[in-house]
Structures are given as C-alpha cells and as structure tokens.
Amino acid sequence: MFLVGLTGGIATGKSTVSLMLKELGVPVIDADLIARQIVEPGKKAWKMIRQVFGEEVFLESGEIDRAKLGAVVFADIEKRRAINKITHPLIYSEIRSQVFKYLLKGEQFVVLDLPLLYESNKVTSYLYKTIVVTCEDEIQLERLLARNQYTEKEAIARIEAQMPLEKKCSMADIIIENSGSLANTRKQVDGIVKLLRSSNHHIYNRVVYGGMLLAFISIAIFLLFWYYLG
C-alpha cells in the first residue's frame, strides 16, 4: 500500500475533491473530521482545551465553540501553538491507526486529506505523491466570503495566514485546478485516480517492507534458538 497526500488552501475546494475521491471508491482519511472527533465532550483533548483556554471557548451544551476558539488561536501565535500541541499528537495517532486498518484490508493506496500537509511536514516523507487543490485568488476570496460570515478584511487575513498557494503548488506532484466547473474538476480527479491505480508502487512497498519484516522475524527466531540452545 502507498499513501497520497491531499491539501490545498482555505476555500479552494479540497473537500469537494475529497468527496469525489470517495465516490470513486478511494479510501480517504480526513484529518479535519478526526480533529472534530477528538474534541468531543469528555475526550482527552476536550479536557485539555478546557484547562488551557478556559470556559469562554465553550458553549452551554459543553461543546467547544469553534468560532470563538478559532478567533482566539488565530489572533495569538502562542495560543495557536498551544492548541496544536494538544490536538496534533492525537490526530496523527488516529491517522496511523486508520492507515494500519486499510493496510490490513489490502488497499492499494490511501489518500490523507491534510489541510496542513506542508506546514506540519510530519508525513511528507511517507507519501508517494502529493496533490494540491488550487484556484484563482479572486475565486478563493469569493468562496470564503460566501461560506463564512467574514468581512472581506477578515477573509483576506485568513487566506494570508496560510502558506501561499503558489508555494504549495511548487511542492506538489499533482495540481488540481478548481477555478472552473465541477465537471472539469471531476475530470481531473478521474484522471488522477486512474493514474494512481495504474501504479505498481504498492507492490514495491510490499516487497521492501515485507522483506524487512521477514528478516526481522528470521533474526528473532535465530536469537531464540541461540538463547535456548546456547
């Protein structure tokens, strides 16, 4: 099995591409979904956030007020680091768990949907290919304003707080241009899935890592015999 990274900028259409991949039967691990799940009431991250950030970022229901927490961490880099220190280890632990499950199921490849793929730089060395979803700057701003209740100034600040799309695209193996119609985007996704399914990289991984595992088992057996017979 091999891993493919999927990322993009805010409001470029990464979630749309992720959904298209799922519709084509591609297993996708969604880091955003995991991030929401790990902060559900009563869970470890939820308790740590309450301890670090206080009651003001929580709703009366006990759930985290994502808008308030987002505003707090966006305005203060130290608080952003604090929330990342709480959530990132738990997110990546769950990602590893899901990857292992897909490996046991015999999947050819899995897509990791990671908004901060290049920013965190924690998994890039494990990826066979990386995909960036991009669009024109004006369209990105229009989509963000339509999706969220931001002023134009707030929306621009959110966009500029991220790694520039141009830099992400320069680091990508595959680029999906999502400025046009859904049909055009779907055509690009179809082509990428066909390309990935035609790859033999999963066989290479099985040979290499299977050989390493076999060597490890052989050494372990030899050491056991040596211990009991020596």
Overview of the structural elements:
The chain is α/β, with parallel strands linked by helices and 230 residues long. The chain folds into two domains: 1-26 and 107-199, Rossmann fold (3-Layer(aba) Sandwich), CATH 3.40.50; 28-106, P-loop containing nucleotide triphosphate hydrolases (Rossmann fold), CATH 3.40.50.300. It contains eleven helices and five strands. A five-stranded parallel β-sheet has the order 2-3-1-4-5, sandwiched between helices. The radius of gyration is 21 Å and the shape is globular. The two termini are 40 Å apart. The model has no long low-confidence stretch (mean pLDDT 90).
Furnish the topology, listing elements before pairings.
Blueprint: E1 2-8, H1 14-23, E2 28-30, H2 31-37, H3 44-53, H4 66-75, H5 77-105, E3 109-113, H6 117-120, E4 127-134, H7 137-147, H8 152-160, H9 165-171, E5 174-177, H10 182-197, H11 201-229
Parallel strand pairs: 1-3, 1-4, 2-3, 4-5
Helix pairs in contact: 3-5, 4-5
> Please, how many helices?
11
**What fraction strand?**
5-15%
User: How many strand elements?
Assistant: 5
Characterize the main sheet.
Answer: 5 strands, parallel
Let me know the CATH homologous superfamily of the largest domain. Answer: P-loop containing nucleotide triphosphate hydrolases
Q: What is the total domain count?
A: 2
Helix vs. strand class = alpha/beta
Helical fraction equals 55-70%
GO biological process, one term: coenzyme A biosynthetic process
Keywords: ATP-binding, Kinase, Membrane, Nucleotide-binding, Transferase, Transmembrane, Transmembrane helix
Transmembrane segments: 207-229
GO molecular function, one term: ATP binding
